Prior knowledge:
Layout: E1 4-17, E2 20-33, E3 37-41, H1 48-55, E4 63-68, E5 71-72, H2 78-88, E6 89-93, H3 104-109, H4 121-131, H5 147-159, E7 165-169, H6 177-194, E8 197-202, H7 205-208, E9 213-218, E10 221-222
Parallel strand pairs: 3-8, 3-9, 6-7, 7-8
Antiparallel strand pairs: 1-2, 1-4, 4-5, 9-10
Amino acid sequence: MNDMVIEAENLTKVYRMGEVDVQALCGVSMQVKRGEAIAIMGPSGSGKSTLMNILGCLDRPTGGSYMLDGEKVSGLNDDQLASIRNRKIGFVFQSFNLLQRTSALANVELPLSYSSQGNDGYKRAEEALKAVGLEKRMKHRPAELSGGEQQRVAIARALVNDPAILMADEPTGNLDSKAGQEIMNILLSLNRERNTTLIIITHDPKIGEQTQRIIHIQDGSIEANPL
């Protein structure tokens, strides 16, 4: 098995804005080892969201190559990207993105309906919720849960397909400091115990410094790590 779960080489991304081409990524190259926990940090407009979208198979680069868990994905079409995204990546977003009218358990089961792993979906969803400490809140709807509990449901949903990568975009951004740290503890524990590769996109240095490595991005390029 390849030790590298992410191998990106000279990634570029150009957006057409009217008559002007905007270079969002300018030749980004990076590698992430299997089981590593990293943070991608940079100010608004730095290109970190564009990079996340490409690494997460939500978008395609204009140029360069990208290998995800041994598969070349930089040239795939939308349907192929959706398939590999569902199999290889679990997403956790700042705004939770839960279905409000369904239970925590049903929210966690949802990704399994798009995969071939749905036969034991109820059991897998239960196990994922237990992994984040919500075994007593499975039947509750999001409105009956605190912000921290809702984010735990989102983490369980991201885990249910046993992804190679857990990608968290500002996962503590809508939480107070105590709940935010609890979410970080859960993410880092899952990284250690399951060897799930963890990529966190964050503005917060206190979040970034808890990971094994920080990748700084500025003006579409990765900066050399500061001394």
